[in-house]
């Protein structure tokens, strides 16, 4: 956790893991396996390149995308048509967009936390 704190210092990882797992995890506990340390380190600087409006739009888009299965049939159909047109495949097909979706899922919470910290203070 301490190494992760050094890579991305703007996120309080002890607090983040407390919120996610409902327990305090000390910085010297080696419980986090980080395979993409260069990626996550660059992620912070990438996020800082965008203005608050772009990050807000991204966060709203992720919330809406996660709720698609619970929305009305007409909204789901419109969403699937958008996916088909923008990604050139069926919404549940295999392709590079699946990897991007997995990356979005993995980093959505830390990115949201960082956005809130930057915009709210």
Automatic annotation (TrEMBL):
PROSITE patterns: NEPRILYSIN. Residues 2-117 form the Peptidase M13 N-terminal domain. Pfam families: Peptidase_M13_N. GO terms for molecular function: metalloendopeptidase activity. GO terms for biological process: proteolysis. InterPro entries: Peptidase_M13, Peptidase_M13_dom_2, Peptidase_M13_N. This is Peptidase M13 N-terminal domain-containing protein. It comes from Rotaria sordida.
């Amino acid at each position: 956790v301490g190494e992760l704190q050094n890579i991305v210092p703007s996120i309080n990882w002890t607090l983040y893991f407390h919120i996610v797992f409902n327990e305090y995890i000390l910085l010297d506990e080696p419980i986090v396996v980080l395979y993409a340390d260069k990626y996550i380190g660059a992620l912070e600087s990438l996020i800082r390149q965008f203005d608050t409006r772009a990050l807000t739009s991204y966060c709203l888009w992720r919330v809406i995308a996660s709720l698609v299965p619970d929305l009305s049939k007409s909204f789901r159909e419109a969403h699937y048509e958008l996916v088909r047109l923008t990604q050139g495949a069926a919404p549940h097909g295999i392709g590079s967009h699946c990897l991007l979706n997995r990356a979005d899922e993995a980093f959505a919470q830390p990115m949201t936390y960082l956005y809130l910290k930057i915009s709210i203070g």
